[in-house]
Each structure stands twice: as structure tokens, then as C-alpha cells.
Amino acid sequence: MKYHFCSSGAFLFFFSILVNLVTICLCIEARTYNPSGKIVGKMPPMSERTKATLTINSFEKGGGGGGPSECDGKYHSNNTPIVALSTRWYNNGKRCSNYITIYGKGKSVKAKVVDECDSTRGCDDDIVDASKAVWKALGVKESSSDWGEMKIFWSDA
Fold first, then answer.
1. Residue 91: DSSP 8-state
2. CA–centroid distance for 79 within its chain
3. 3-state secondary structure of 103
4. Which of 12, 38, 127, 129 is 20 to 30 A from 52 in CA distance terms?
5. pLDDT tens digit string along 108-140?
6. ∠ Cα 122 124 125 (to 5°)
7. Is residue 18 within a helix (H) or strand (E), and if so which, with residue range?
């Protein structure tokens, strides 16, 4: 008769260790690290700063932006820092009324998301369509060659 050194108790012990290791790995994978190395929560849908093209839009009634904003069904003053995001970033309205920070020309500005720049109707998928107030806050002059379209980075505020 042969004897086995692995009892059911030992099997359960090693099995529980394996389950714990898998659970720890899955928890870590579902979170992200900040520069200090601490776990800070679920991974955001966008990278910390997302590369985009800033364009200009009128959000006022009768302006070039078309109808009222998707988020609230209203028109907005171009003197307010507001934006429309490409369809993928607009994310079915999940960013409505939230603020983003736009970085360009060595400056930054916070702007409220009020609309979608519909990628199924000709808007490129990397667009942050902004009011004049955003452009002015970034220090871009209307006479500048950058006015109307320039490369920027943005993040959720």
C-alpha cells in the first residue's frame, strides 16, 4: 500500500492561497497607480492628459453651432468657457455638465461640457469644440494662425 503525503487539509490550504493570489491580482488590475505609487481607484476612461484638436464653435442662438446644446437643450454665451466633445469622449452624455481642463499654449482653462460634436455627422473623433472664451483664456489672439484650430491636451477636471 502506498501512502500519499498530500492530505485533503493540505490541498485546501494551497487552494485557498491560490484563490487569494488570483483575487489580489484582479483587484490590482482593476485599479491604477498615481505617481506616488499608491493605489487610487478605478482606472479612468481616458489617459491623464488626452491629445486632441481644439476647434472653435458658437453656442449662441443663430451662431454656427446649429441647435441648442445636447446636455441641457439650451443655448449658451460664447463668453462662457464651454465645450462640445467628440462622440466617443461625450460618451452618451456621461460627461454632460462636468468640467474638463484644457492645456494649450503654456496655459490651462476649465470648461464645462455642454454638447456633443457628433462624429457620425462629420466631426472628427479627436475634437474639443470650444467657445471663444476658452480660446481667449488660453491666450490665443483672433489674428493668430492658431485661432480656430490647434493641438491641445485635455483631462477631466
1. G
2. 23
3. strand
4. 38
5. 999 999 999 999 988 999 999 999 999 999 999
6. 125
7. helix 8-29
Instruction: Please give the Cα distance from 149 to 109 (Å, whole number).
Output: 16
pLDDT per residue as tens digits for the range 9-62: 554 454 455 444 444 443 333 333 334 333 333 334 455 899 999 999 999 999
Q: Pick 6 or 103 by higher pLDDT.
A: 103
Residues in the chain: 157
Tell me the sheet residues that pair with 109.
102
* Model pLDDT, residue 40: 38
Locate the DSSP E strands across 3-156. Answer: 31-33, 39-42, 50-56, 82-86, 99-104, 107-117, 127-130, 149-156
C-alpha cell read off for 156: 477631466
